[in-house]
Structures are given as C-alpha cells and as structure tokens.
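for ur thesis appendix - Xylose transport system permease protein XylH. copy paste whatever u need, i formatted it the way the template wanted (i think)
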Amino acid sequence: MEKIKKIVGNNIREYTMVVALVVIVLFFQITMDGVLLKPMNVTNLILQNSYVLVLSIGMLLCLITGNVDLSVGSVVGFIGAVSGILMVNHGWGVVPTIIVCLVIGLLIGAWNGFWIAYVRIPAFIATLAGMLVFRGLTMAVMKGQTIGPFPKAYQVMSSGFIPDFLGGDGINLFALLVGVLLSVYAVFSMIRSRRKKQAFHFAVPSIPVFAAKLAGIVLIINLFFFWLALYNGIPSVFILIGLLILVYSFVTTKTIAGRHVYAYGGNAKAARLSGVKTQRVLFAVYTNMGLLAAIAGIVFTGRLNAATPKAGDGFEMDAIAACCIGGASASGGVGTVSGAIIGGLIMGVLNNGMSLMGVSTDWQQSIKGLVLLAAVAFDVYTKSKAKK
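the 3d part is after this line
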C-alpha cells in the first residue's frame, strides 16, 4: 500500500488532470444529452484542437527551460499568409510550399533562439517582440485581405481521413484494426516497463492494480477508435499528432538531449557546471518551437481553407494554458508530453462543450482562465506539501 501511495504521490498532478478530463467529459455528456461523445463530434474535437496539441508539445519544452514563447500565434498566422501567397497568388505546388513554410518556421525559431540564448535577452521580451514583428508582417503582406481557397491536397493533412483499406460497410474496419494493434502495443510496452522497474527495484503497483490499469487503457483505446470508425475513420491530422507525441516522448525521456533540457530547467547554473551546453540547448528548444509553429500554421490554415490576417490570435495562450494544466511548471524543470496533451484535451473539451451549451465567447475565456488558475494553484499546493 505504501508503494502505491508513493507512485500516486509522485504523479498526482497528471493523475488529477486525467480525472479532471473524465469528469469534464461526463459533465458535458450528461448535460448535453449525449451530444459531446457522438462520433462526429469526437472527430471534430480532434480536428478543431489539432493546432493547440501541436503547439503545446513545442511550448512544453520552452516551459521546461523556465521560459515561454509568445510569438507562436503570430508565426502561425505568418506561415498561413506565406502558404496562401505562394499557392493561391503564385501557383506554387503543395509540396514546395510546405517545405518553404517549414524552413521559414525553423529560421524564425532560430531567430528567437539566437536573441534568447546568445544575446541573453529574456525570452518573454524576445518572443513578445517576435509576436509584434510577425503579426505586423502578416498584416502587411496580406494587406488586410483573406486569401483562399487552398488546393484539396493542402487540406488533406488537416481535414482529410485515412481511407478504409479493408472495405468496411458503414463502419471503418481499418480504424478498428489500428485500435486493436495499438492496444496490444500498449499492453506489451507497459509490461516491459514494469519489468524494467522491478529489475532496478523501483516501486511498482500490485498485480491487481496494474491489471486494472491495463484493462482501462485497452478499453479506452478501443472505444476511441470504435467511435472514429463510426464516422469517417482516422483523421490524417491524428496520425501527425500521434507521430509527434511518440517522437517527443522518446526525445524527452530516452535521449541525452531531453535530459539536458530538464537539467537546464531544474538548475541552469548546475547544468552548465556539469558540462551541459546550455546556450545550445536553449537555442535548439526555440528553433524546434518555430518548426512546430510552422506545422501548426499549415494545419490550421488547411483546416480553415483560407489565410486571414488575424489567424493565430491568442494561440500562444492556449498552448501555455494546455501545458500548465497538464502539469508543466512555470518555474521550469517539470512537465511531460502526455501531460501537455491531456491539458490540450481539457481545453478542447471545455471549448466544445461550452459552445454546444451556447455559452458566449466572453464567458468561455473567463472560465478557461479560472481553470488555468486552479491548475497552477494546485501545482503550488502540491509542491508546498512535498517540501514539508
């Protein structure tokens, strides 16, 4: 029992946010007479919040270093403007346009990283300047006009679906197969992780608790893909987000580069004295953020099927809120990719549920602000209890 308490105590924030997500989903599901979890709405939740999930992965690394990036919303808008000008106004192909947009995102991230890591301008100021610069550039190059529509091939990544190769009638069999395969992978990976922890004498939950956790995860995975199968199947952007989650989870937990990011956020001076190239770490984090902002810009623009001067407004706040709600600490050194995704889902469900209830945008912003405040207050409280 003591081992279980220790495990839960070490992960209390993440467990709490998972419970909070379930409670919020159940609340809106009951309140809206089952509308929230209808297959079409579940798919819409993924499509509508894809850009937040992409941005939150990059913002997580910034927060782990104890910093933020306020320019990402403007970068999303600028990338949309560039893609619209190249494809619609100048007739460029989809692939060359995407490549150019990704390179521009990398360069913007490197620009921010240079000022922050090497000139030592505080990240808040440097990225605030970037927010103003790229918002101004977006409005200047678009001249206040909306550019669109985009080619169908450009929209596939953000609003397309993976075809049903198995030829299901009325239900997407390919989506069901993916759910089964993922649940099998989850079971084997969790068993392997448990054995590794036991080999190093780490605390692990008892067999019944572990079995219940496995059963719950398998049930959730298969239910989720069953819901997708009832509509149009697996959205293309879901594959993109899944790949980003896998890659960045691996980088942050299994690589030296990931450990260096956490070391920097925990204590930058100690990390530097230990041989960590702290300037290089900070530069890489912001370059990566620029790349993910470009991806989010492509996804959002394709979903909207138009580039608008105001695209991306407030996106940086959504990404920061998602990370903080999901367990990232504003002081740095703490946070997980899975936590950021959970935080993003909480924000997405709140947005969708309140919209279905007819809550005005003004009240939605206020409620999301209170949720963020509560999450951070909980973080402060748990840290103060841990120190005692």
